[in-house]
Amino acid sequence: EDPLKPQPLKLPALYPSLPFLLLLLSLFSSSFAAFVGSFNLPSIQARQVNKPLTSLKMSGGRVVLWFRNDLRLTDNVLIAEASKRFLASNSALSVLPVYCFDPRFFAQSQYGPRKTGVLRAKFLLESVADLKKRLQGVGSDLLVLSGKPEVIIPRLMQSGEDTTVLAQEEVTDEELRVDRAVKRAIAPLGGKLHLLWGHTLFHRDDLPYRQGLTDMPDVFTPFKEACERKSKVRKCFPYPVKGNLGVVPEDAKKLDEGLPSLESLGFSAQEVEGAAKPDPRSVLQFVGGESAGLDRIQHYIWKQDCLKDYFETRNGMIGADYSSKFSAWLAHGCISPRFIYEEVQRYESQRVKNKSTYWLIFELIWRDFFRYICMKHGNEVFKIGGIAHRSWKWEGEGEAFQRWVDGETGQPLVDANMRELKYTGFMSNRGRQNVASFLTQNLNVDWRLGAAYFEETLLDHDVTANWGNWMFAAGLSGGRINKFNILKQSKDYDEDGEYCRLWCPELRNVPVVKVHSPWQMSEKEQLDCNVKIVSYSELRDKMSANVQLYPKPVSEKNPGRYFDDGQPGRVPSRRQAEVGKRWDKTADRWMGKKNRSSNSKRQDYMDSHM
């Protein structure tokens, strides 16, 4: 049965008469509404309601709730389905929530970096710990185990007992391979894997496209407009009522291994020590878990009332509240896009409805777009030619890529953003667009190296949003190719150089007229600012110990591409035209004015991290 379809509530004969119940309910509802209304700040917890659940003819058996990147109780289709089955079995069903720390997702990727870095691993551990605590709060528990799910989940099954494994459906290859492995492992034991859709704002079945998404456009704007016209956002699932998931059996509890340490996940003592000391320059001290995610929503939308100004402030780079910062909790499933949508609707009805409130929903639709692009195109998203199948030749790992990773390109805006990412796991939307453009369009480095590095370091890494965004940044979506003028962007979005100086302290004494282009300083100016602009080799050798060192700009590549036939200059005319329109380094002039056109679609292609 469809878990989203409302079902009738069947009352046993021992219940009081229905009119009497309705009378009590009306009295309680009015009193409760008055109580809630007495507060100035709407509480997001007030919407935890008991919703009628369907009845299934079941008795006994087990349901394994396999959590992955859906680490929440609020608006969780798995929780709703498990509760429904438990109540339908007259409490005879055993519900076993489980999280598996799969070693494959902490191993080295084929591109070099780990698939999960230490900062995101810490956030994940906090999220799993919070999920366990919240499950215990409703009378259940979470079994935390380390190992491959296809090995662990069969251990939770009992011979002769029907077992259904519930999990949220994924769309990308590595996750799908794990799904297939679990399905094969439990089949001989009589187990079944039941996958449910739950990651998106718009449900897959409500999209205005054919099954398989063959008619879905590969461009965002028509996708957004079609969804807004023809699709509706489904209501959130209720927070589980205490007891509706039953009690985890004692035989299963004995298998619980508890949270692993960061060291046991493969991180060095130095990495663990660094993760334990948050950088004071970080925009936010991120803490994983549904509780922290709900607190962030309460803070940003209601307490600080930031939502009304979101559109105007979202391109900032310093501070906690220039943007929502919901992305890390969304990526781990600690909060759902539908819950944010309902909070925005409530804000619009109680405070204000404007372009800013719409724009937050706009960002959620971007997240949907990339997930459905990955669903439509599969592994093409991860191939070097992208979904456009373009045969450009890229540079591999080398000095240029390493300088980009280390934040030593000699371009202050790029370096500041890359250092912020390295030390905090976060980077602003504006920063992501610029560093991705610089790596792919200026340095001609294989975009997949950038995507893999982001996968390791980002707190808010979501496989579909990250790899989809990088493919678009590399110009491999089949649409417009965007190349950012880094110097102009730096002057536009960090007008006084405060951000560049924050993360590049070598430049702390450089005046605003040169902080965006320190290579233009004379030797006397460098001396006055106690900084020396040096070659990369000299920077590596640390030859000048008595003065701050900052590198000269890395050598940039020709914006053209060499095709596989080896003939230089064969660049598609549209690409050449687009690059020409957006890039004229010598003609760039700083007039002291900000260029933040609200009509520019170009600036928003990488917005889905919020």
TrEMBL record:
Binds 1 5,10-methenyltetrahydrofolate (MTHF) per subunit. Binds 1 FAD per subunit. GO terms for molecular function: deoxyribodipyrimidine photo-lyase activity; DNA binding; FAD binding. Residues 554-564, 575-591, 601-610 have a biased composition (Basic and acidic residues). Residues 61-201 form the Photolyase/cryptochrome alpha/beta domain. GO terms for biological process: photoreactive repair. Keywords: Chromophore, FAD, Flavoprotein, Membrane, Transmembrane, Transmembrane helix. InterPro entries: Cry_DASH, Crypto/Photolyase_FAD-like_sf, Crypto/Photolyase_N_sf, Cryptochr/Photolyase_FAD-bd, Cryptochrome/DNA_photolyase_1, DNA_photolyase_1_CS_C, DNA_photolyase_N, Rossmann-like_a/b/a_fold. The chain crosses the membrane at residues 20-41. The record marks 394, 447, 470 as: Electron transfer via tryptophanyl radical. Residues 551-610 are annotated as: Disordered. Its cofactor is (6R)-5,10-methylene-5,6,7,8-tetrahydrofolate; FAD. FAD binds at residues 310, 323-327, 363-370, 460-462. PANTHER family: CRYPTOCHROME, CRYPTOCHROME DASH. Belongs to the DNA photolyase class-1 family. May have a photoreceptor function. This is Cryptochrome DASH.
